[in-house]
Specification:
Number of strands: 5
Radius of gyration: 19 Å
Number of helices: 6
CATH architecture: 3-Layer(aba) Sandwich
Order of helices and strands: HHHEEHEHEEH
CATH class: Alpha Beta
Structural class: alpha+beta
Helix content: 25-40%
Number of domains: 1
Distance between the termini: 47 Å
Low-confidence stretches: 1-29
Largest sheet: 5 strands, mixed
Bound molecules: zinc ion
Strand order of the largest sheet: 2-1-3-4-5
CATH superfamily: Cytidine Deaminase, domain 2
Shape: globular
Mean pLDDT: 87
Length: 166
């Protein structure tokens, strides 16, 4: 049987490091970017497009609103599939719609869903293709419309992302 006491002791020995890591995290959190001025519009559109979501399996509606450098706002919702694996997230739907419409410079994206509103790993990598400094607005729909969403950079959500060129 494994000797767990050694493991427990090492955990306790590492506690000071954990505190350091925690204060470091709080320090980075203070560097959060400001919300883009059009965040209320992005929030409204992202929440509205949730109603278009095709999600008969999870019943989990997600909306995204992508702000382009030229000021366009492109909406996207999640589109599920019976195979599950072919499901496409709202963020990627919005990005693909924008690309198809001729927009490639993205400034911000608002992601609206109930609960912990963060993009999945696949969407982080997908969006990284276009702008590592993309502002990601994390909108929890459990809060009333008009509640300022948390704003972070895409890079902070996906450090050391895979790229062909750096
Ligand atoms: Zn996703």
């Amino acid at each position: 049987m494994a000797d767990l006491s050694r493991y427990t002791n090492s955990l306790q020995a590492n506690r000071p490091n954990s505190r350091l890591a925690c204060s470091f995290f709080m320090g980075t959190k203070m560097l959060q970017p400001e919300l883009p001025v059009r965040w209320p519009e992005l929030q409204q559109i992202a929440r509205t497009v949730r109603n278009s979501a095709w999600c008969p399996y999870s019943r989990f509606q997600v909306g995204a609103a992508l702000l382009t450098a030229s000021g366009e706002i492109i909406a996207g919702c999640n589109v599920e599939n019976a195979s599950y694996g072919l499901t496409i997230c709202a963020e990627r739907t919005a990005a693909c719609t924008a690309i198809a419409a001729g927009y490639q410079d993205f400034v911000a994206i608002c992601v609206s869903l109930p609960g912990i509103s963060v993009p999945c790993g696949a969407c982080r990598q997908f969006l990284m293709e276009f702008n590592s400094q993309l502002l990601v607005l994390l909108d929890n729909t459990d809060h009333p419309l008009g509640t300022p969403p948390e704003c972070v950079t895409l890079e902070s959500l996906l450090p050391r992302a895979f790229r062909f060129q750096h």
